[in-house]
Design a protein that fits this description.
Order of helices and strands: HHHH
Largest sheet: none
Helix content: 55-70%
Radius of gyration: 17 Å
Length: about 80
């Protein structure tokens, strides 16, 4: 099971990529540089999710994913009741 990452730590790693992306020849190079500096392997996914959450990219926002997860868990729980 994946390790749960602190939200503040994730935001701290994503911010430099989004703020300084124009200083690199490509977005991938910006992510690579910051990931190496911060020692984070999942930075690309975090940046993409931050863009989705900000409405800059299509996809399922974090809040929507969390709500869906809660509803699925509730459905499982209710399905087990007599």
């Amino acid at each position: 099971m994946p390790r749960k990452i602190d939200v503040a730590a994730r935001e701290q790693a994503v911010w430099p990529v989004r703020a300084h992306q124009g200083e690199y020849p490509s977005r991938a190079k910006a992510i690579e540089a910051v990931a190496r500096q911060e020692g984070v392997e999942s930075l690309r996914r975090w940046v993409v999710q931050a863009e989705v959450d900000a409405g800059e990219r299509d996809g399922q926002a974090s809040e929507e994913a969390a709500a869906l997860k809660r509803l699925k868990a509730e459905n499982r729980r209710l399905g087990d009741e007599p």
